[in-house]
Amino acid sequence: MGLGGNLIWTSVLAAIREHDNAPPIACNMPGLSDLIAGVYHDRSISLRDDPIFRFNPDIAFTDTEPKSILSRALDIALKAVLKIPALRRRYERWVFRRTEALFKSKGQHFVHIDMQAHSYASHQTKQKTFWKPGRAEEAMAKPFNISHVKPEPQLTFQDSEIKNASTILEQHNIRSPFIAVEPDTNRDWFGDLRAWPMSRWQDVCDKLSKQYPNITIVQIGMGRGGLLNDVIDLTNKTDFRTVSIIIKEAALFMGTEGGLMHAAKAVNAPAVILWGGITIPEFIGYPDDQVTLCKHVDCAPCGNAGWCDQGHKCMLQITPAEVIHAATSLLDKRKGT
Question: Distance of CA 170 to CAs 157, 164, 166, 173, Å?
Answer without folding.
Answer: 19, 10, 6, 5
